[in-house]
């Protein structure tokens, strides 16, 4: 198995009212850097989609062995990031882990859980779920047989179009890690209050 992680970080952070959620500090570093470092600790190939211009986000990745992928049409939505990231993949990648970068409860342990589940179920589509429930979340792990479908995605529905008709197997992740994304200052304040 030759996996890659695609960290989706090209969104506008528009609900942060002038702030950038991916530059918020988590564990002593900007969230985007933390997520990229976590991904790199469990996977040799990590790709990070970035808006154009995206200098501040690119700067926090300095020194990390990740591939930055520019997404000039990022305003179209998450599908633009997935298309760009999928197009950048080397031909030997067998599994792609899609992870929105604004999910601070997903780290190396959760990514390793997803990769282990893929080893046990080659060819399966996997999706992180909240512990003790079937609530779907992230990351989503997609096998290479669906990569061509990623190239035709449009809009802001993420990978849903590529997964139509597929059986998706849930992979339980601790607590609410799979469904905690932080989009607003209030989300961040509530999340920090729980730490």
Brief descriptors of the model:
Spore Coat Polysaccharide Biosynthesis Protein SpsA, Chain A, globular, 195 residues, alpha/beta, 9 strands, two-stranded antiparallel ribbon
The CATH topology assignment is Spore Coat Polysaccharide Biosynthesis Protein SpsA, Chain A
Residues in helix, %: 25-40%
User: Overall mean pLDDT score?
Assistant: 92
Rg over C-alpha atoms, rounded to the nearest angstrom:
15 Å
Q: Provide the succession of SSEs.
A: EEEHEHEHEHEEHHEH
Protein architecture, described:
With 195 residues, the chain is an alpha/beta fold. It has helices at 31-42, 55-60, 78-87, 108-120, 147-150, 160-163, 185-194, and strands at residues 3-8, 25-26, 29-30, 46-51, 67-71, 95-100, 125-130, 136-143, 168-173. The chain starts with a strand and ends with a helix. The protein has one domain: Spore Coat Polysaccharide Biosynthesis Protein SpsA, Chain A (Alpha-Beta Complex), CATH 3.90.550.10. It is built from seven helices and nine strands; from the N terminus they run βββαβαβαβαββααβα. The strands form two sheets. It has a seven-stranded mixed β-sheet, with helices on both faces.
Topology:
Elements: E1 3-8, E2 25-26, E3 29-30, H1 31-42, E4 46-51, H2 55-60, E5 67-71, H3 78-87, E6 95-100, H4 108-120, E7 125-130, E8 136-143, H5 147-150, H6 160-163, E9 168-173, H7 185-194
Parallel strand pairs: 1-4, 1-6, 4-5, 7-9
Antiparallel strand pairs: 2-3, 6-8, 7-8
């Amino acid at each position: 198995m030759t996996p890659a992680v695609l960290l989706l970080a090209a969104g506008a952070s528009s609900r942060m009212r002038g702030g950038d959620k991916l530059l918020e500090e988590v564990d002593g570093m900007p969230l985007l850097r933390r997520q990229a470092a976590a991904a790199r600790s469990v996977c040799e190939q990590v790709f990070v989609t970035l808006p154009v211009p995206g200098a501040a986000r690119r700067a926090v990745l300095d020194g990390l062995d990740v591939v930055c992928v520019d997404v000039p049409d990022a305003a179209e939505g998450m599908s633009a990031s997935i298309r760009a990231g999928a197009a950048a993949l080397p031909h030997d990648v067998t599994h792609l882990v899609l992870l929105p970068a604004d999910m601070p409860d997903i780290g190396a342990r959760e990514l390793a859980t997803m990769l282990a589940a893929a080893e046990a179920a080659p060819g399966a589509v996997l999706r992180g779920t909240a512990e003790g429930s079937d609530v779907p979340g992230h990351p989503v792990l997609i096998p290479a047989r669906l990569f061509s479908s990623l190239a035709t995605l449009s809009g802001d529905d993420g990978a849903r179009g590529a997964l139509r008709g597929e059986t998706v197997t849930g992979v339980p992740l601790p607590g609410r890690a799979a469904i905690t994304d932080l989009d607003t200052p209030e989300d961040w304040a509530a999340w920090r209050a729980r730490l």
